[in-house]
Amino acid sequence: MTTRIVVLPGDGVGPEVTGAAVRTLVAVARRFGDAFCFDHRPIGGAALRAEGTPLPAGTLTACRDADAVLLGAVGDPAFDRHPARSRPESGLLELRRELRVFANLRPVRIWPSLQAASPLRADRVAGLDLLIVRELTGGLYFGEPRGQSADGQQAFNTMRYSSAEVERIADVAFREAAGRRGRVVSVDKANVLETSRLWRATVERVAARHPSIRLEHQYVDSCALALVLEPARFDVILTENLFGDILSDQAGGLTGSLGLLPSASLGDGPPLFEPVHGSAPSLAGRDIANPIGAILSAAMLLRYAVRAEAEARAIEEAVDATLARRCCTPDLAGPLRVTAASCSEVTAAIIGEIASSGK
Q: For the whole model, what pTM was predicted?
């Protein structure tokens, strides 16, 4: 069977890194005999420029009909002063809502060859391998009412959660933990927020269905500190939308570069895969963006959308081998004190590893 993949290059470095991910998937297909069909569609600022909307109807229809969606990035400073619904980011939020993807998985690991790139001491990050499970369609980002006063002097957002929303994301976290080290830290602010008290009580009920998993609760500020002081102690971090957005970027900094981090957004519709980094407009068109986050997102696509574990591992092993040779883009080359490679060169090295390891 042919896997239908809609590719949304998006803005900034998005076209470069999604191009790298697509070339990697083609190399995997060649090695394993898979069949992928790629359908490129606009989103974000690119869609606003071309069609006047951040999520064109044709893009949304194609995504709904796909087996998986691979996204680059959205964000364009040219639209920063536009109304919220006419900004690139609103296209991504709408896409998540329309695809009904509510569980965002963000794995964070330290590659052995990159410990020197971390801003923390090597002994602090050694063994770092955690998964942030972030609720994706609730909380402040989607809660109503929201808005701004007519005089522009006041603004408001609503943080809202139902027990059903919390229960379904908690189930995802406990299932993921069962395939890892069996520990979940649920992050909230239950000493202040009513939504967090609902969150904590619901997570406790879900935990009772997973007796083999060890559950711990932690306030978000305490978790932020612990991610710096002892990051390797975490296995699965479960949290709501806003907290997860912030903590995953913080955790990404521990690895030395956000450009390394992939993500998967899962739910009731076609899954969405994207690197954690933004559009980085200052890097666009210079062939220096780190493609690894997007390439590892392609590996997650194979694992979660195609159920092709061997192919996913082949990509991850190729990334590991490439980094072990100190072949990396400038974001990592500086801290490692090695000569920087381009985005294209890193991609070619990863594809070469995939091809050679299959012989």
A: 0.93
